[in-house]
Design goal:
The complex is a heterodimer of chains A (about 230) and B (about 300). Chain A has 10 helices and 3 strands; from the N terminus they run ααααβββαααααα. Chain A has one domain (about 5-225). A 3-stranded antiparallel beta sheet of chain A has the order 1-2-3, covered by helices on one side. With about 230 residues, chain A is mainly alpha-helical. Chain A has helices at about 5-25, 35-50, 55-80, 85-105, 130, 135-160, 160-170, 175-180, 185-200, 215-230, and strands at about 110, 115-120, 125. Chain B has helices at about 5-35, 45-60, 65-90, 105-130, 155-180, 180-190, 195-200, 205-230, 235-250, 255-275, 280-295, 300-305, and strands at about 135-140, 150, 155, 230. In chain B, a hairpin with a 2-residue loop joins β2 and β3. Chain B has a two-stranded antiparallel ribbon with strand order 1-4. A two-stranded antiparallel sheet of chain B has the order 2-3. Chain B has one domain: ABC transporter involved in vitamin B12 uptake, BtuC (Orthogonal Bundle), CATH 1.10.3470. Chain B is built from 12 helices and 4 strands, in the order ααααβββααααβαααα. Chain B is mainly alpha-helical. The chains are: A mainly alpha (about 230), B mainly alpha (about 300). The interface of A and B includes residues 222 and 225 of A.
């Protein structure tokens, strides 16, 4: 396999994570334009854990997942009662708030004669976990595909359980789902938390995060939506 | 006069001037949203596309300023038609038939149209950037080089004039909608689309015309802002969309009067945020305000669904 094909496959695997997160929300009838915010939070948190605090990689990933889930739940709780259109705009506004907040954040420490950490509008550069641990491109692709396979398996399992049916029922007709006794708000918040979890974890093993650029955020959002529509 | 009082007065005047411009920007967005019941996320991008297209032609043939403005409006209208055909055409009849369709389906139609316009936003923005790749583009400027000074307070009279024109434009549009026959058609198609259809009104055509009118208004508002700024970046489309959204929704967005009030209030809030917390806080406050406004509507939506 050529290095180009490996790089492309890796990007496809990462984008698949993004699409899965958007797909979860589509199941409950919501489109979010703010998923890139959780992507950014996950990247920053994993970067801080693995590079600045020298945590083992799995712990940094778990930390990113937990933070992604907490932020996602905190945003979903007040917004999931909104109609689809208003929810989409609220999520976009939240993503922009997150972008501005992260672009103001400067916290750098000196590691190996190099300043590392969030650096305002320049983002969070020099996250070199892959390089310092001599992970080859192929190994990195295997890590991404493995994580993706786990994620798909978990989603596949839950989609065939009661919670999956409830999610689809809410996406099909919310009023009908309420009449069936489903707590639509709670199920939507749980779904958004799951989506935040997926987003929090997806980019953590990438060697370089510059996740604080507006145009890039929009591009990520667009790719997420396009891919998830195909899945739906 | 105490320094804080001078600063507060300056912030108020600057805020009101900016607010008048925001109201103008919000006018087009509000018009298309109220008429179609669909949110056009490509609202700012169509204006941006028109501006970049016009600037590209201006750089090639050195167009005179009035011709440049006309070219920008025409290109924006073409882009608006493109958005309308791809995202909204054929989907606007749902509200007229809502009696026989489930709520979920209507909401899905709204979301599909909005998501489609989001994709077109990205597409138009990318085409504009490919046309003129440099981040910052010069735009012909007619900004005044001096300011009015009243004691220690300074007023940029060119921007003040623009704000007055913007508010006047909102007011005239409101009057036109309230008193003209075309305005009556617009209101009928918006408020009672099924009744309007049954009485022989071509609702889809009226909605299309309102959409084009909104596109034209956005182009004129964008040109006016840039004629004073003298420069444009690809972020301008997003700036227009968000300012328009907040201005239109800040006071409910149920009438053009509320759009004018919303624009002025937004200008004041931003101006005070900048004075008290700096330039970055100004942007943050804009999005925070939009977020809080929407969240405040959440319980109402839930109640409505339960009812």
């Amino acid at each position: 396999m050529s290095s180009y094909a490996i790089g492309l496959s890796t990007d496809m695997a990462i984008m698949s994570f993004l699409a899965l997160a958007a797909y979860l929300l589509l199941l409950v009838g919501r489109i979010s334009f703010g998923l890139q915010a959780f992507f950014g939070f996950g990247a920053y948190v994993a970067g801080i854990g693995s590079t600045m605090l020298n945590w083992p990689f799995p712990i940094a990933v778990v930390f990113a997942v937990v933070i992604g889930a907490i932020v996602s739940a905190a945003v979903a709780w007040p917004t999931m009662g909104l109609s689809g259109l208003r929810y989409a705009i609220a999520s976009l506004a939240f993503a922009e708030m997150a972008r501005i907040a992260l672009s103001q954040w400067v916290w750098q420490v000196r590691i190996d004669e190099r300043l590392i950490g969030p650096n305002g509008v320049d983002g969070f550069r020099d996250i070199r976990w892959v390089l310092t641990n001599d992970i080859t491109d192929t190994q990195y692709l295997v890590i991404c595909l493995g994580a993706l396979a786990c994620c798909v398996a978990v989603m596949w399992y839950f989609e065939r359980r009661r919670i999956g049916t409830a999610m689809r029922a809410i996406g099909f007709d919310e009023t009908l789902a309420q009449h069936m006794g489903l707590n639509t708000h709670h199920i939507r918040v749980i779904t958004a938390t799951d989506a935040g979890t997926t987003h929090g974890s997806e980019y953590t093993s990438h060697p370089r995060h510059d996740s604080n650029d507006c145009r890039r955020n929009c591009r990520i959002g667009r790719r997420t939506l396009c891919a998830s529509r195909h899945l739906h | 006069m105490a320094t804080w009082l001078i600063n507060a007065t300056q912030a108020t005047i600057d805020g009101l001037i900016d607010g008048g411009i925001y109201a103008w920007i919000g006018l087009g967005l509000s018009l298309s949203f109220v008429t179609l019941r669909r949110l056009n996320l490509a609202y700012g991008a169509t204006a941006l596309f028109g501006i970049y297209g016009g600037l590209w032609l201006h750089q090639k043939w050195d167009l005179p300023l009035p011709v440049l403005v006309v070219v920008i409006v025409v290109i924006t209208l073409v882009a608006t038609a493109y958005v309308e055909v791809l995202c909204f055409s054929g989907r606007t009849n749902v509200s007229a038939q809502s009696g026989s369709r489930p709520a979920g389906e209507i909401q899905n139609a709204e979301i599909v149209a909005m998501a489609a316009s989001f994709a077109i936003w990205m597409q138009l923005e990318q085409v504009a950037v490919n046309l003129l790749p440099r981040h910052l583009q010069a735009f012909p400027s007619i900004a005044a080089t001096s300011e009015w000074a009243i004691g220690e307070i300074y007023i940029r009279y060119d921007r003040g004039l623009l704000a007055v024109v913007g508010l006047l434009c909102c007011w005239l549009t409101a009057k036109w909608l309230a008193h003209s026959r075309t305005g009556l058609r617009f209101r009928a198609a918006t408020d009672h689309s099924l009744a309007a259809r049954l009485s022989g009104l071509r609702v889809d055509r009226v909605q299309r015309h309102a959409f084009y009118l909104a596109g034209g208004l956005s182009a004129v508002a964008a040109c006016s802002v840039l004629l004073l700024d003298g420069q444009v970046t690809p972020m301008f489309g997003m700036w227009m969309l968000f300012k328009g959204l907040v201005a239109a929704w800040l006071l409910g967005g149920h009438s053009l009067g509320s759009v004018m009030g919303g624009g002025l209030l937004l200008g004041l809030v931003e101006s005070y945020a900048q004075w008290l917390m700096g330039a970055q806080a100004r942007e943050f406050v804009l999005y925070a305000l939009l977020f809080v406004l929407l969240v405040r509507q959440a319980p109402v939506t839930r109640k409505g669904l339960t009812a």
